[in-house]
Design goal:
Layout: H1 5-32, H2 38-64, H3 75-90, H4 94-119, H5 124-150
Length: 151
Amino acid sequence: MELKIENKEIVNVLQELLQKNYDAEAGYKQVMTKAKSQGLKEWLQLKAKQRSEYATQLDNVIRNFNATPAEDGTVLGSVHRGWIDVKTTLSSDTDESILEECIRGEKASVSEYETQLEKVSDYLPIKDLLNNQMTSIKTALNTVKRMEDII
């Protein structure tokens, strides 16, 4: 069954966010192994799990449009994780570097959600899902900023 043009646009938005969530999940898992603080490791693990749940939600919506969801993240996400490896290897304060990268990543996620939300403003159930996910990401951003002040 062929998707209508407006449905293709929605699926493209969902695919973009799905890949970004794959990237975020992989990033959190990667830096979790580098964190020194047990509390930070646990928080990063929770964030990776949350992003996995977001990816599952987006995957399900994409399938409801009879489309095939992306199976992995973006090339840019892979490059960013490589940069995190280099940065944390060279950094003397690993947890602080990890938090800085988390802040940068979460800011980018919020920006991406804001951009994509504009494209689905006429589709209330999808808009609500994306708004809920973005709100949680904003909460994570505020939390990680507070954690950076403590560490």
